[in-house]
């Protein structure tokens, strides 16, 4: 089963939550980290880029994001 990343857009930018990934939590001290995208970045661009950079993850939007 692939690991999961959930993408959420905030007022400041896009955040990525790495569900159950102990390595990310150990490295950053949390599961949710900011991406390099600001809030104006198109949702589908963020999704496609994050998927390309993290092929071992199932990447999806949170329920709060409309593409």
Q: Which strand order does the major sheet show?
A: 3-2-1-4
End-to-end distance, in Å?
25 Å
Mean pLDDT: 93
In terms of structural class, how would the helical and strand content be classed? alpha+beta
Count of helical regions? 2
Taking Cα atoms only, what radius of gyration do you get, to the nearest Å? 11 Å
Number of strands: 4
Series of secondary-structure elements, N-terminal to C-terminal? EEHEHE
* Helix content estimate: 25-40%
Domain count: 1
Strand content: 35-45%
Spans where pLDDT lies below 50 across 5 or more residues: none
Per the principal axes of the C-alpha atoms, what is the gross shape?
globular
Major pleated sheet: 4 strands, mixed
What's the SSE blueprint?
Elements: E1 3-9, E2 13-19, H1 22-28, E3 32-38, H2 43-53, E4 57-61
Parallel strand pairs: 1-4
Antiparallel strand pairs: 1-2, 2-3
How would you describe this structure in keywords?
single chain, 67 residues, alpha+beta, 2 helices
What would you say this structure looks like, in words?
It is a single chain. The chain is of the alpha+beta class and 67 residues long. The protein has one domain. Helix content is 27%, strand content 39%. It is built from 2 helices and 4 strands; from the N terminus they run ββαβαβ. β1 (3-9) and β2 form a beta hairpin. It starts with a strand and ends in a 6-residue tail after the last strand.
What's the short story on this structure?
27% of the residues lie in helices and 39% in strands. It is an alpha+beta fold and 67 residues long.
